[in-house]
Amino acid sequence: MSNRYQTLTLSSILDLASIDGLYTLGYSFLFGMSIWVSFFGGVIAHRALPRQQFGALQHRTFPVFFRTSEVLSSVLLVLWTLSHPDVVPNWHDPTNADVAQAYVLATVLLAQGANDWVVGPLTSKTMFERQRLEKAEGKNYNDEGVSNEMKALNRRFGSLHGVSYLLTLGSVFALAFHGLWLGNVGLRTY
């Protein structure tokens, strides 16, 4: 048994706000937020709210989620690259473990950026078009006998929603891989 004993002082507490400590907090926030949004928050809201209110909620919350993901993954990528000097000269070698971790963070940034700037707005636009057509036709999107236009909007919405979910799920898997790396190897690999 170790006799490791540390006394907390104001100085030792202030030292916790190091780059490594802040990196860990940023990563934890990003991963936790991604898990919550992907697997819990949406499911709970879908069950609790009428469909159009759920859509309005998603339309408001997902851009915040995507942008927060973009900011945090960008900061993490910059911090990782600055603290691992072998990343830039070896950027072309994904077998270099530090480079691979930078690729993982870049994957999150690109996937959530695609969601924020392309897929998400197209999905919202399609959702609102479908809601307008429901009012015009006097039918829900999934009723019998909807128009061909509604069927096309349904297919488009389903495809866009699927692409968005796959991009987010890819980000979750990338973040899980990065977290496993951090847990087993740590922030410093040399």
Blueprint of the fold:
Elements: H1 10-14, H2 19-48, H3 51-83, H4 97-137, H5 148-185
Helix pairs in contact: 2-3, 2-5, 3-4, 4-5
Question: How would you describe this structure to a colleague?
Answer:
By secondary structure, the chain is mainly α. 77% of the residues lie in helices and 0% in strands. It contains 5 helices and no strands. The longest helix is centred in the middle third of the chain and has 41 residues, at 97-137. The protein is elongated and about 75 Å long. The two termini are 28 Å apart. The mean pLDDT is 95.
Key terms:
5 helices; about 190 residues; mainly alpha
Share of residues in strands: under 5%
Which overall shape is indicated by the principal axes computed on the Cα atoms? elongated
Q: How large is the count of helical segments?
A: 5
Kindly provide the radius of gyration, computed on alpha-carbon positions and rounded to a whole number of angstroms. Answer: 22 Å
Q: Give the % helix.
A: over 70%
Q: What's the overall average pLDDT, rounded?
A: 95
Biggest beta sheet attributes: none
Secondary-structure content class: mainly alpha
Distance N to C terminus: 28 Å
